[in-house]
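Data card: per-record layout.
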Amino acid sequence: MQGWELQSKRVLEIGCGLGLASMVIHRRLGDITASDCHPLTQAFLQANLLLNHLPDLKYCTGNWGRENFELGEFDLIIGSDVLYQREHPEQLAEFILLHAAARAEVLIIDPNRSNRSEFKQHMVMGGFALTETMIVAPLHDGSPYRGRSLHYRRG
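The structure for this 155-residue chain is written out next.
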């Protein structure tokens, strides 16, 4: 997210965990909302913001299997390693379709989970076009990551 073109995009991080990508966007003064369904995420995010001397950022519980009306729509939705449960492909695609603006981008970083294919089918049926790229950047031990960048566009 350090080099991603943000302009005036409204950005949502799904499954934010510790909120690292959200904090990068926040530091760049992007319009970011972090979300996750874990009950301790907001506390972890707040602690990370304090450790990094950053002001509060928007957070909203994002439960993919429930209505999340307070979230609204976003121009860019990002997530990393969010397809690890069998029910996630359909739930996540439906969640994204509810919260993606008419012209939207979705960037998912996936470490080659087996649920990726089903997710891609749901997203394409939802009107998104996919550009998939292998990520071969080395890990801390020098071995290649072997994950994929799933970049969806609609509108």
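Known properties of this structure: The chain is about 25% helix and 30% strand. The helical segments are 20-27, 41-51, 88-99, 116-125.

See the next section for split statistics.
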